[in-house]
Design brief:
Layout (H helix, E strand, L loop, with lengths): L11 E7 L5 H11 L7 E4 L10 H12 L4 H12 L6 E4 L2 H7 L1 H10 L4 E3 L9 H9 L3 E3 L1 E2 L5 H10 L4 E4 L15 H9 L6 E4 L5 H6 L6 E4 L1 H8 L5 H9 L3
Helix pairs in contact: 1-3, 5-6
Bound molecules: indole-3-glycerol phosphate.
Length: 251
């Protein structure tokens, strides 16, 4: 499924799941349900031992997934099962090391064959991304790059130029994880990013509540929510109700 966020003043939702947390069967089951709820895309994390951008909740989820044997191969199979619903595009969030270990071309080919729409590889600096981005693009995958509040204009421009599908705007300085309040200048950052691109812009990091999602209406094209969903699974709850609540805050 191609990745196309509305980009017409409407806000949509991109929930994140860590593949293999708490186990692969649960990711498959929850992922299949979530793509049928009206979300814009599902971001599926591939666990990795040194997740430098991840806060404690996602780090723990990744470790649990690795301990339970969630290999990249197994995660790609789960991605394929979720993508087979053909209900919402599936994006893979992975650090560059698992991709290099798997082999970039093999990874790109297998992800595309699995029906994955695109990849987010947060630790590839945009200046060094041309090779790996080309490998993904040739396979038919979108490449989403991140811009942060600390990114100078030239790096925002470079990340926007390298991105396809949408641009991931990191709302806070630091790592993933719920925050009680988002910085007040998020919307200014989103507006600045828009001066560099016509692509949709998604906001992520620290968004956990319906109230925070609703503050992004009219500013972002999508809200990305990770840790809050992982938290539900940690507590043994189905994240469906939270996702539905977040979705209604998009309207
Ligand atoms: O967990 P949060 O604060 O809701 O943020 C989204 C985030 O989890 C997800 O997009 C993500 C998980 N790991 C990442 C690493 C880098 C960039 C983004 C991510």
């Amino acid at each position: 499924m191609t990745l196309s966020l509305p980009n017409q003043g409407g806000l949509s939702l991109i929930p994140y799941l860590m593949a293999g947390h708490p186990d692969l069967a649960t990711t498959r089951e929850i992922g299949r349900k979530l793509v049928n709820t009206g979300i814009a895309a599902l971001e599926l994390g591939i666990p990795y031992s040194d997740p430098l951008a991840d806060g404690p909740v996602i780090q723990r989820a990744g470790q649990r997934a690795l301990d339970a044997g969630a290999t990249t191969e197994a995660c790609l199979e789960v991605a394929a099962d979720i993508a087979a619903e053909r209900a919402a595009p599936v994006l893979l969030m992975t650090y560059v090391n698992p991709v290099l270990a798997y082999g970039p071309q093999r990874f790109a080919r297998d992800a595309a064959q699995a029906g994955v729409a695109g990849v987010i590889i947060p630790d590839v600096p945009v200046e060094e991304s041309a090779g790996i981005a080309r490998t993904m693009t040739v396979a038919g995958l979108e490449t989403v790059f991140l811009v942060a509040p600390t990114s100078p204009d030239d790096r925002i421009a470079a990340a926007c130029a390298a991105s396809t599908g949408f641009v991931y705007c990191v709302t806070v300085t630091g790592i993933t994880g719920s925050r009680s309040a988002l910085p007040t200048d998020v919307n200014a950052l989103l507006a600045k990013v828009r001066t560099h691109t016509d692509l949709p812009v998604a906001a992520g990091f620290g968004i956990s509540s319906a109230e925070q999602v609703s503050l992004l209406r009219g500013h972002a094209d999508a809200a990305i929510v990770g840790s809050a969903i992982v938290n539900e699974l940690d507590a043994g709850r189905d994240p469906g109700p939270l996702v539905r609540e977040l979705l209604s805050a998009c309207k």
